[in-house]
Amino acid sequence: MQCPKCHAPMHTYNRNGIQIEQCSGCRGIFLDYGELEALTRLESQWSQPGPPPPAAPQAYPAAPAAPAWGAPHGGGHHGGGHGHYGHHRHKSFGHMLFSS
Amino acid sequence: MTLLPALTEQARTAAHPRPGTASCGCGTAALADRPDATVVRHADTVAKAHAPGTDPAHLALRVATAARLPDILLPPLTPDAVPLHDRLVTFWPYGAPVDPDDPDAAPWEAAATLLARLHAGAPPAGLPPMRGPAKAARALARLHAALRTAPDERTHPVVLRAWAALPPWARGEAPMPGPPALCHGDLHLGQLVRHPAPEGRWLLIDVDDLGLGVPAWDLARPAAWYACGLLPPDEWTRFLTAYQRAGGPAVPADGDPWSVLDIPARALTVQTAALAIVRALAAHRPLDEVEQALIDACARMTAP
């Protein structure tokens, strides 16, 4: 997706199960519905250790964590995306899997 | 006699130690013929000519490690390397590789479990360092050499910047940090075989880069593929969770694995990107979509 402010591409990161989109240009952050609440919940757990509240039902399976320099993943909750896997494995990647 | 026919003769002799079978009907196949390794199979015997300049003492220690860990590493047929021309040759049983035409059948769980057991064992004393960072540095040297004849190449600056941003240990310029573990050093899907072929258990092959070092390096190639958007998330999750379930020490049992994977995965992304540019230049072709994904990842590593 594109940043609503500066229109640079936004990259998806997963931190503690929360999907965060950060703009590669202005570094602004986009949160989906419920994610601010999830962050607030994590923060309150940090300051007041206690039994965690029941997790909200998750609309999308969480993608595994990825580094800040990672590609925006097609398997993320926005669908689409720019992953290079998709319907078939690219021939060039098939070769890469087997070479040093 | 050039290396390949001489090595084929060695493989045939090793497969048929008794005289009088010189005209056997067994098949012979060259499994690899690259500057850094020539590998020939004859019947169930594989002969490997190691890279020119291979240190004989280091190779002996690495082959001995494979002999000592036959449940993790394919054990050699004979303990000693023999000289052939200017190369050292070792002998191995044939194992069935992962089908390159069916990488979806990749044994991610088996690979992860073998690595976890390799890393968790007591590291053998006297073994040289794992050669992962040295290989990354060699890839960058090849890129520099290729650029001398192709000064117009445009994608390399982001690769060089991403390389320069790595700590010295990841560039092979300083000792690796942390308590050393026994590492494979060059994990990819070509490094797994089933022995005995075709239905035996999976084992790791190729001890050339085996040694002591940062075990996260062995997870970093799949990690880099995943981070670059090439390996689907479910395959990465299968590999990582199988490693954690098997008690692998390279990453935290739970929590963010990228705290330890980040640097090795960056190094392997840069290494793979450098070699992709070298190959594209040699073939006079543009980078394809997959290779461009590596370059893009290098660019993001040093983005302001």
From TrEMBL, chain A:
The name this protein goes by in its record: Zf-TFIIB domain-containing protein
InterPro entries reported for this sequence: TF_Znf
Residues in Transcription factor zinc-finger domain copies: 2-40
Stretches the record annotates as Disordered: 42-88
Biased composition (Low complexity): 57-71
Comp. bias intervals (Basic residues): 75-88
Pfam families from the UniProt entry: Zn_ribbon_TFIIB
UniProtKB/TrEMBL annotation, chain B:
Classification via Gene3D superfamilies: 3.90.1200.10
Sequence segments annotated as region (Disordered): 1-21
SUPFAM superfamilies the UniProt entry points to: Protein kinase-like (PK-like)
InterPro entries given in the database record: Aminoglycoside_PTrfase, Kinase-like_dom_sf
Domain Aminoglycoside phosphotransferase: 98-252
A Pfam entry, by short name: APH
Superkingdom, natural source: Bacteria
The name this protein goes by in its record: Aminoglycoside phosphotransferase family protein
Organism per entry: Streptomyces pyxinicus
